[in-house]
Specification:
Layout lengths: L3 H27 L1 H24 L9 H29 L1 H8 L2 H12 L6 H18 L14 H25 L6 H20 L15 H28 L2 H8 L2 H12 L6 H18 L2
Helix pairs in contact: 1-2, 1-9, 1-10, 1-11, 2-8, 2-9, 3-4, 3-7, 3-8, 4-7, 5-7, 5-10, 6-10, 6-12, 8-9
């Protein structure tokens, strides 16, 4: 089907924007570190069960060693490192500035894709990426000052974490595309990414000092429900769709459409978290949609 990759990328953005709102509630009750570990665990179980039903095995034994290495590296870069840094930036800077920094991921993806995949950017693709990022900046830049500064680190540390998170996400996208080139299905690829990242963050937990202030997901029904909802929408459905998108369109185009996820999150947040939709938000949304249309018209 024509534009199958772009359509999957739009669906990915919708899933990730929905997941972000689930994780806002869960993270405030559990803490970002515990949330990151639990969401990867839940997503891994869901992916393994689905793969068992679809392919008859809970683990993709049909993947080659090269695919395991590339997708495992992608999981470490995108989930274990990138998402961990992003959550720290989110805690320090607040949602607005942290998500704005993460919108650098499409540019990082384009650079990595140029180096590793030999992808070139035509005029319409470059225009679409520029409009998409400009729209995101318009929406999110003014929201950074509305969120209180967190005592967990300095603003400079938050900025560094946000930039590094974008680099990790960009590297993860391109490594995923490389890992899927042999024809591996997106569901198997997602499970390898999530399992590798989950193993890494849980292994690190054994060596980290005990953190105070986190909730217990099993005793908190709201935390449990929002964690499950976010895990289904994000690492399960969203990431699987993202790998399908990477298989059927260029990494730069896919990641630019993925970058619309913050706009979805803002619209949902206006409804359920009572965040106001300002003229800046509306105008930025229109600019971003124009960028997505430019990507579709390439």
């Amino acid at each position: 089907m024509r534009f199958a990759g772009e359509i999957a990328a739009v669906a990915t953005a919708a899933c990730w924007g929905t997941a972000a709102n689930f994780f806002v509630t869960a993270g405030r009750r559990l803490g970002s570190v515990q949330l990151n570990r639990i969401r990867l665990l839940v997503a891994g179980v869901l992916l393994a069960a689905t793969l068992w039903l679809v392919r008859g095995s809970p683990w993709p034994v049909w993947a080659s060693q090269t695919q395991f290495l590339l997708l495992g590296a992608s999981g470490l870069a995108g989930f274990a490192i990138g998402d961990s840094l992003y959550f720290r930036a989110l805690v320090i800077l607040g949602a607005g500035r942290a998500v704005l920094l993460l919108s650098l991921a499409p540019l990082c993806t384009a650079i990595f894709a140029r180096w590793w995949l030999g992808e070139t950017l035509g005029f319409r693709v470059a225009l679409g990426m520029g409009l998409t990022l400009a729209g995101l900046a318009t929406v999110l830049y003014g929201r950074g000052n509305e969120t209180p500064r967190h005592a967990e680190g300095s603003a400079a540390m938050g900025v560094v974490c946000g930039v590094l998170a974008s680099i990790g996400a960009g590297a993860g996208y391109v490594l995923s595309k490389l890992g899927l080139q042999g024809g591996l299905d997106p569901l198997s690829g997602t499970l390898i990414r999530v399992a590798t990242a989950g193993a890494a963050v849980w292994l690190l937990a054994l060596f980290e000092p005990r953190r105070e202030g986190g909730g217990n997901v099993l005793r908190d029904r709201v935390a449990l429900g929002t964690t499950l909802g976010g895990s289904i929408a994000g690492p399960f459905l969203g990431v699987t769709l993202s790998l399908f998108a990477l298989q059927h369109t260029s990494a730069a185009v896919a990641s630019s459409i993925f970058a619309c996820a913050p706009l979805v999150a803002l619209v949902i947040g206006a409804r359920f978290h009572r965040e106001p939709l300002t003229l800046r938000t509306v105008s930025g949304t229109l600019v971003t949609l124009a960028g997505v249309l430019a990507l579709f018209s390439r």
